[in-house]
Design a protein that fits this description.
The chain is 77% helix and 0% strand. The chain has 252 residues and is mainly alpha-helical.
């Protein structure tokens, strides 16, 4: 595949927007996956290459949220292990699965999330002042996190929505802290997924790293916005991005 200046500018642009969307909600890969595939990559290679930027974007976001005191680190380990197990299983499945499955899994997840936010929005956006729960007091949360990890390991696109639903719905974190922990979880299963994809030689490094630059810039500015934004603004942004995700899944 020939990598041109046009390709580089395209990836930088969509990466920047995707970095913002992923950090504040989810679904940024609905932009980046089609952009990679337009360049001639098969779906499974685009899916693998996209993870390079996802990893670096999440690292940027986590460091930003931690700097502003919005990352609850005391419950990270219990949250991570079911996510990692799910991510490993999902990544192995994705590396062997036919590419058409990705579209239908993405569409189903986006429709389910949109329906949940319409029917019971408090599940993914707890009321202000709601006290977060600990993993040890909420054993059912490990199953929702494992499912989110599997989905993230398999397709990545839209996993932010699934993780926010698990963290805000099961553990009752507010949207800012749920987004911070979401990025930690995404780092975990993306690391596992990258190992699998690299081992199977499915990552194209040059476009992956150029895309990552856009992701990093977007994540940096998204954290600054999230810290200052009202909770209701973040909730509506999450809802709008869910609807966009549904449309993108149909188009994709």
């Amino acid at each position: 595949m020939d990598f041109t200046i046009y390709h580089g500018l395209l990836l930088l642009t969509v990466g920047l927007f995707a970095g913002v969307i992923n950090t504040l909600a989810g679904g940024g890969s609905n932009l980046t996956l089609p952009a990679l595939m337009v360049m001639g990559m098969p779906a499974e290679v685009a899916n693998a290459t996209n993870r390079v930027g996802i990893f670096l974007q999440c690292l940027t976001g986590v460091l930003g949220f931690k700097k502003h005191g919005k990352l609850d680190t005391d419950d990270v380990a219990p949250i991570l292990w079911p996510t990692l197990v799910g991510g490993l299983v999902g990544a192995v499945a994705a590396s062997y699965a036919p590419s058409w499955i990705i579209k239908y899994l993405l569409l189903g997840a986006m429709l389910a999330m949109a329906a949940l936010m319409l029917i019971k929005p408090s599940v993914v956006a707890p009321e202000a002042g709601t006290e977060a729960r600990k993993m040890k007091d909420t054993p059912s949360a490990k199953w929702s996190l494992a499912v989110a990890g599997f989905y993230g390991g398999f397709v990545q696109a839209g996993v932010g929505f699934i993780l926010v639903a698990a963290l805000a719905g099961s553990l009752r974190y507010d949207l800012v802290r749920a987004n911070a922990l979401k990025l930690v979880c995404t780092i975990a299963f993306t690391s596992v997924a990258l190992v699998v994809f690299i081992a199977r030689d499915q990552v194209l490094w040059l476009p992956g790293l150029v895309l990552a630059i856009g992701y990093i810039i977007g994540a940096h500015y998204a954290v600054k916005f999230a810290i200052k934004a009202a909770a209701n603004t973040l909730k509506w942004f999450l809802f709008v991005m869910t609807l966009v995700g549904c449309i993108a899944a149909l188009w994709f």
